[in-house]
Amino acid sequence: MSSKILTPLAAGTLFGAGLTIGGMTDPARVRGFLDIFGDWDPTLAFVMGGAVIVMAIAWRIVPRMVEPLFAEKFHIPDRSDLTPSLIGGSALFGVGWGIAGLCPGPGIAALVIEPTLAATFVVSMFAGMLILRLFERN
Amino acid sequence: MTIPGFPDAAPLAGLIGGILIGLSAAVMLLGMGRIAGVSGIFAKATGVGGSGITRGGAWAFVLGLPLGALIVAIVTGGVDAQFAGFGPIVVAGVLVGIGTRLGSGCTSGHGVCGVSRLSARSIVATVTFMIAGIVTVAVMNAMGMEVLK
Fold first, then answer.
1. So where are chain B's domains?
2. Residue contact A3–B79, C-beta within 8 A
3. Rounded CA separation B116/B51 (Å)
4. What is the pLDDT of residue A138?
5. What domain range includes position A8?
6. Per-residue burial over B102-119, b = 16 or more CB atoms within 10 Å of its CB, e = otherwise
7. Which chain B positions have a beta carbon within 8 Å of A123's beta carbon?
8. Is the predicted pLDDT of residue B125 greater than 90, yes or no?
């Protein structure tokens, strides 16, 4: 296998391991973090904090590199406009996140932890993406 | 390790997990020149749009997620998870699918990759989905809706 496949495979595996160690594949823990008016569980703040600190360092390395290690160039989002889609979409996502305590990464990773319900989430998420795609085409 | 007043919190496991997630996103950025946004990569893999990563690369990342979870589950002898029931999961999944595409990202792309480079769009998105999630849980609790089985 080439580095163009092995690199994302390694990254995905690391990501799934990190989510699981951090407790993010347990919806009860994620909903516990969102439950700031009830029995609050701050664990997710440590997960986010750890990830953001490492990535803040990675972003400082980017300008010192001519190109990525295994690709031709960097593809960094350059938009800065705050649109209704960005805010409305993020709000819808947040409602879904709150209802079941699952976001895309943990939902997919949990396929090996709670197969039936995680698969239900992943298929529903795909359906949501497809619905939007069909809606946007018309 | 516990935090006084929060006996159920797992700060050390959370921090270690977070560092691994950060390293994963760093591998994608410095290795492939790409943002490790799970919703965009999943959309690309399944063909409903998404990021500019190759289809094969997208599938490799997506398949890595449960592989990583499986390795942790085997090494630690099992992972606890308390899921919601079928109905709430379907509703949540559809909302997450629509919302992350419309909002151009989720907890990983906006929350980790975008916030760490101080992207205004990602900070606004992250604050928005955090508030929406907090309000949703608060309203459901106030209405006595117990979704977790």
1. 1-81, 82-149
2. no
3. 19
4. 66
5. 3-137
6. bbbbbbbbbbbbbbbbeb
7. 93
8. yes
Distances (CA, A) of A81 to A23, A64, A77, A86, B121: 34, 27, 11, 9, 7
**H helices present in B10-119, as ranges:** 11-27, 38-46, 55-76, 86-102
pLDDT at position B45 over 80? yes
Query: Is A19 within 8 Å of B43 when comparing Cβ atoms?
Result: no
pLDDT tens string A22-33: 999 999 999 999
Distance CA B122, CA A80 (A): 9
Handedness of CA A35, A38, A42, A43 (dihedral sign): negative
Complex-level ipTM beyond the 0.95 threshold: yes
- State how many domains chain A has: 1
In the block, which residue shows the tokens 């990675």? A58
Name the residue among A102, A129, A98 with its Cα closest to residue A114.
A102
Nearest to A53 by CA among B17, B74, B84: B17
Tokens of B60: 């490799």
Task: Identify the residue among A111, A120, A125 best suited for mutation to test binding to B, counting B beta carbons within 10 A and taking the highest.
Answer: A125
DSSP secondary structure string for all residues of A27-44: HHHHHHHH-TTSS--THH
| DSSP, res B148 | B
**Using CB atoms, which residue from B19, B48, B65 is nearest to A126?**
B48
A35 closest CB neighbour out of B33, B106, B141 = B141
CB–CB contact B58 A118 (8 Å): no
The nearest CA of chain A is from the CA of B144 a distance in Å of: 13
Chain A nearest C-alpha distance from B54 (Å): 9
Cα separation, A41 vs A19, in Å, equals 16
